[in-house]
# Entry
Amino acid sequence: MTPHQVVDEAAQPIPGQSRPAPDARGAAHRPAGSASQRPDAELLIAASVLLADAAVTAKQTGAELTDALSSWRLGLAALTRPAWAIGTAVSCAKALTSPSGLGFAPNGGVLGELARMAGSVTYRRPAAVAMAVDAFALRIEAAVVEHPNLDSALARRLTDAMVDGNRWEALRALHALVERLGLTRALTTISPVMMELLALLGLLDENPVNDGFSWVTLAGGVPTTDPFLGLPSSVLRYLNPGPGRAERVEPDSILADVLATSRNDIVSYANDIGTLGNHGLVLLRRIACTDGRVKYVLLLPGTSFGLPSNSTPQDLVGAFDGALRSDTTYTRAVRRLLRRAGVPAGSELMFVGHSLGGLTAMNLAADVELASTYRITHVVTLGSPIDNKRPADHTTQVVSLVNKHDVIPMLDGRGPASPQDIPAGWVELSWLDTSYDYPLSHAPQAYSATLRGEMAGYRDRVNELIAAYDGEVVGNQPYMLRDK
# Structure
C-alpha cells in the first residue's frame, strides 16, 4: 500500500456516465427509488466542489465591492472627481444588490456585516448562498449512493425541505421519520449528511450570526462555532475549565478478569475500553516488548451520555470541547496521569481511544510539549471524529477505524460525500455495518464484534501496524480522572 491508505470495504466502483451530472436541485429532488438513474457519486462531489469554489469566490467578490464602496478613498476621490465617484458608487451598489448578479451580497467590515445581517433577517439572499445550497444538495445526493436509506420517501422529504429552506416542513418530515423508524434509526438514517443539513440550516435561517458554521463546512474546514446560535468555541473554555486530576484506583473484579487476558490486539483494546466504561476510568499499560524496551499504552474511553456535564472529563461538554479545542480537561488530566505514574521521558507511547477518547488521543499527540517529552509512536482511534486533528510529530502513525453506520465519526465534517481526504501517512479502515443503529453502532463492543467477524482482515492489518508493542504485559494501572 502507498503511505496514504484509505480502505473502504463498502465502496464499489461506479461506472461513469456519458451524460453530464444533473444540477443540484434536480439531483436532490429526484424521486426515491431511481437508483438505476442515479449519477456517479464522484461526479456529484466534483460538481459540488466547483459550486463551493464559485460560492466562496462570489462571497469574496461581494466583500471586496463592499470594501470599495465604503472606502475613504472613494470619498476622497469624490472631492476631485465627483462624477466618477458617483458612477463608481452606483455601479458597486448595483453589483451588490442586483438579483441577476451577486444578489444582495454586501459583507465584510462593519457596514457590510450590518447590511448582510439585515439581508439575512429579511430573506434577501446573495447568489453565493444559492450556489452554496446547491453544493450541499449535490453532496447529499452523492451520499445516497452508499447510504440508500437516504433515498426513502421520508428521508427525501426531510432533505428536500432543508434544501428549500422550509424549516416547518423539515420539522414535520423529521417527526414523520421518527414516527416511522424510531429515534435511533431516524438519527442513523440522516447521520451521513448531518453536517450538510446543519450547514443548510445555518445558511437559510434568519440568524445571521451562525452563517460562519456553514461557510467553514462548505470549504471543508473545522467549524469553531455552533450551528444554531453561532456561539464561538471559546465559550466552552468557561464550561469546561477544570485543571484535571488523576488518581490511581484498583480494578474491580470484572475489569481485573478482562485485563488478565488482554494483549496487544485491537479487539482486545476495544474490549478493555468497553469494560473501563465512560465514568472517568482510563488505563495505563506497561509492556516489556519483544525488542527489549519497555513501552506504554494508554487506553482512553469515550463520552458518558448522561448529564451534559459531570465531575469527569468524559461528558458531553468535554466532547464538544475536545472536538473544537486541543487543550481540554481530559488532556490536562492525562498529562497529570503521566507525571504521576512516573513514565520516563523519552518513553514510547501508544494512545488507543474510542470516540471522545480518540479525540483526546489526537489532542495529546498535537501537544508539542508532550510530543517532545515522550515518543508518541501510534494513535489508534475507534469511532472518533479526528480528521481535522494533526499530531505534532509527523512520524506518529495514525490509524482510524470507522463504521460508516456510526454517527459520531462524521461530526468532524468529513462525511461520505465530503470532498476532503485524510492526510498522507494516515491509515483509515472503514466499513458499513448496519447490524446496529446508533448509539449501539458507536459502542466499542460493536467495533470489537465487527473486527472479530466480517472485518477480521482489518484486525490483522491494525495488529501489524502496532506489532512494535508485542510483548509481556507487566503492568495494568487504572486511573480515575476528574475535572478538578
User: Anything to note?
Assistant: The beta strands are 5-8, 245-248, 281-289, 294-300, 348-354, 375-382, 397-403, 427-431, 471-482. The first helix runs from residue 24 to 28.
